[in-house]
């Protein structure tokens, strides 16, 4: 990967903000992802993120930390936080902003244990496909201390397949409807396409049961999104 996401974050951090990220998926048109949004304060975060941060306890792992906004908020509250991201640029920005422990690392390579694991901004995305959900959940389970919790959010994107008559045009032979390809571009350059997974709550709940994790629905958002607590 070219790490265009990290490049964009570094540009913003270094006062070189001239353009936003442009995203799209295999079922949606291009949309703008404003860089200032990735540097948001707690006050401007969506209610699902606020709730997750309020529920955090003990030692925290922030998976896919991006610019480090969640980690910084928890640090200020006195939490010990480890922030990880596969983006080298994101980790550099997190460190520049003051995240004490930020490391470029894939989740499956993490081996410390924590009391709270955060996977926010569609945390199920990193699972990539239905075939990998159990593998990731099993690994996450090994990272939990006794009485530990995983706080993860996602969306049920079935609404994107709805037609004008209220019916759905999901192809039952095409696999799970939340499996998408995700495209990102920045300053005219295109990133390598990524696999990305949106999981509805019932499917996440069933997947958790197969690896002996309990899954509670904590809060629903305003647009088919939700926050779940796994333990």
Structure notes:
The protein is an alpha/beta fold and 231 residues long. It has six helices and twelve strands. The chain has helices spanning 4-13, 47-55, 69-76, 88-97, 130-142, 201-210, and strands at residues 21-25, 28-33, 60-63, 81-85, 102-104, 114-119, 144-155, 179-186, 189-190, 194-197, 215-220, 225-230. The strands form two sheets. Strands 5-4-3-6-7-12-11 form a seven-stranded mixed sheet, sandwiched between helices. Strands 1, 2, 8, 9 and 10 form a five-stranded antiparallel sheet that branches. Helix 1 runs parallel beside helix 4 (88-97). The protein is globular and about 50 Å long. The chain starts with a helix and ends with a strand. The model has no long low-confidence stretch (mean pLDDT 96).
How many strands appear in the DSSP assignment? Answer: 12
In whole angstroms, the N-to-C terminal distance is: 33 Å
Broad structural category: alpha/beta
Relative strand content: 25-35%
- The backbone outline, from C-alpha atoms, is globular
By DSSP (H or I, 4+ residues per run), the number of helices equals: 6
In N-to-C order, the SSE pattern is: HEEHEHEHEEHEEEEHEE
Order the strands across the largest sheet as they lie in space: 5-4-3-6-7-12-11
Which range best describes the helical content: under 10%, 10-25%, 25-40%, 40-55%, 55-70% or over 70%? 25-40%
Cα gyration radius (Å): 17 Å
User: Which stretches are poorly predicted, pLDDT < 50 over at least 5 residues?
Assistant: none
Biggest sheet descriptor? 7 strands, mixed
**Mean of residue pLDDT values:** 96
């Amino acid at each position: 990967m070219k790490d265009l996401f990290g490049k964009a974050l570094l540009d913003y951090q270094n006062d070189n903000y001239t353009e936003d990220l442009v995203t799209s998926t295999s079922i949606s048109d291009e949309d703008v992802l404003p860089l200032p949004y990735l540097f948001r304060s707690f006050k401007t975060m969506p209610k699902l993120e606020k709730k997750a941060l309020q529920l955090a306890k003990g030692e925290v792992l922030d998976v896919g930390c991006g610019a480090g906004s969640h980690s910084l908020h928890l640090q200020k509250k006195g939490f010990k936080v480890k922030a990880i991201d596969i983006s080298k640029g994101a980790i550099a920005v997190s460190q520049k902003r003051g995240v004490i422990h930020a490391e470029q690392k894939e989740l499956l390579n993490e081996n410390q244990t924590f009391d709270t694991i955060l996977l926010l901004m569609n945390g199920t995305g990193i699972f990539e496909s239905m075939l990998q959900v159990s593998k990731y959940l099993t690994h996450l389970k090994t990272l939990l201390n006794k009485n530990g919790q995983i706080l993860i959010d996602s969306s049920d994107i079935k609404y994107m397949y709805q037609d004008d008559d209220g019916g759905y045009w999901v192809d039952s032979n095409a696999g799970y409807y939340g499996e998408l390809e995700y495209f990102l571009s920045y300053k005219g350059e295109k990133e390598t396409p990524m696999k990305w997974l949106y999981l509805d709550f019932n499917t996440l709940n069933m997947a958790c049961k197969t690896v002996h994790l309990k899954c509670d629905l904590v809060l629903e958002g305003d647009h088919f999104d939700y926050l779940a607590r796994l333990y």
